Queue: 3 jobs
Job 1
Amino acid sequence: MKKRDTAQASRFHGDVVTQPACCRNQTAVAKLTSVFHCNFIANMEFTGSSYTGAFKNGRMEGEGEYKFPTETRYVGDMKDGMFHGKGVLYFPNGSKYEGTWEKGISKQGKYTFSDGLEYQEKDWDFCDGYDRQFYTERCNGLKPAGESQLTDLDPPRVIPDGCYDCGDGFYDPNTRVITDYEHQFLRNADDYEREWIVSTCRKSWDEIVGHSPDN
């Protein structure tokens, strides 16, 4: 398993990237604060999102910026209330996805991690079975013998008690909620993501592995 937030990248490669359904019909949820055909801010009353940009016939169209409640931002072209054309998704952890969109669906694009590493769908040689260095280790060199680097970020983040660091935030297994590193809500983990986090991600506590003298 790769030692970074490649789970997020995989959502853009091999799977279809879709714009959330709540973004596709903004007529019902947008409260316009000015006249059409102008650049202004519309408050999305029910979704908790916001939009700054151009409108046409009461729908988002032209260049604009759409901000989700999770602080993820889409900056780019809109048409008929949907992502359409060239656009970039900026994530709270500093990563981004640059893509070409058609009626709210990403048709092609590339994902760049917060440290500048670009994800490659083919010929991906980062953290494979033969080379498990972090990207910062490739850039800055390995630590001396006896010193370990636990994450791409060095020193690593302090994980809250009872939680996991899942690459783009902290996961609480009691609530099954993932928050960002500023402790703002990101999403609820489904069964598949929960299993992946528990089996692979760094946790806040230490466990004894191997032989136990009591057994």
Job 2
Amino acid sequence: MQEVVFSLLGLGSAYCSPCPPLSFELLLFLFQSNILIYLTICSVIGAFSVSSVKGLGIAIKGFFAGQPVLQHPLTWILVITLVASITTQINYLNKSLDIFNTSLVFPIYYVLFTTIVITTSIILFKEWVTMTVVDIIGTVCGFLTIILGVFLLHAFKDMDVSLGNLPQMLVSNLKKRKSRK
């Protein structure tokens, strides 16, 4: 449990401060029609939920090892933070889905959420310090592959491409290129 305490001390009062919710509402008031504001709020709050779950996982591991984690106030703070962050995250995600198209919300949210959670993990738990260079390169390449895959799925969602019509599409594209020359 001490490792969680030391990790969370780096955040200062961000977990307990009323400033983030107030700043979120101010941003929404100023930029009501911007999808990135809604989804950034969801992603930042989602990073709190992921960090809380990670801390609770360490607490559960300590509980089964016989440590008195239930008496530690941080365990209960993490539970409260988890419930509050999930509730807030779902609230803002529903607001964004009410205003914007679902086909825009989910790809952007997925990429933002993943980016912010990885960044939070780097800062809060300093996981990348123990990774080798090969592991870091593999993680970054995997992350970039996910982002590229989400982009490609979203960019070409309206195209009717299947294995059966792929040769026909290639032939028609070649004919179009030859006719342009």
Job 3
Amino acid sequence: MGNVNQTPQQNPPILQQAEEEESASSTFTCEICIEPVTLPNKRFKNSNRCVHPFCTDCMIKYIQVKLEDNVSDIKCPALTCDHSLEPLSCRPKIAHQLFDKWCDVLCESAVLGLDRAYCPNRDCSALVINECGGEGNLKRCVCPNCKKPFCFRCKVPWHAGYRCEESGEMRDRNDIAFGVLSERNQWMRCPMCRHCVELVKGCAIVKCRCGIEFCYKCGKKVDHHWCNCRRSSTFCMWIFHLCIVILVLWPFFLLFTAITRKSHH
């Protein structure tokens, strides 16, 4: 049996051409900074996609500028090249902080258009996505990373007992503790003076010390002794109206009955 001639494995055309250029001359001119580079390992290589005469320092600055503009798909700076830079191939050449920022920008572009927020905890800053639906309705949220609650609507630590428009005001520890206590006991704030009111028992329509009557269930100011926030309140309103009508018409009914009896006699 004759010997079988084995064909040696050939490198991709792009890498083979680059290796020939490097072997011919170890010096090249960077097309970005237009400076001669004498070290062959300073030539930037985009994995197996493309190789151009760009020095590593210029490419690192190029990547940094693109990430500052929140560009996730970073294209090769060569004018005639449409390839994108591969993050994993660039990882050994760039700093860890720059690579982490690249990963964050890629994740943010992947969830672009979704209802999302960042954890306001400075030691966390994790990306949290609203998976409950109802965009704009989610308020209290617990970060899955640091397990600390925050307001998904106003993007600040959870302001227990305070509205979102009040969350930006400066408060001391006593105010925060009182807000937590108010939320735990489900106290309602007066819509006018913002003082807390506790309902022990009785009707849901309460009167604050400032003189304003409001519904303890929904917190809205009311002009009459009922509220339309629930069906039970609506039913009570109709019963109240019916009682008023009966009280007004009852004397006329008695008078009509008396006249009818006299006419029969």
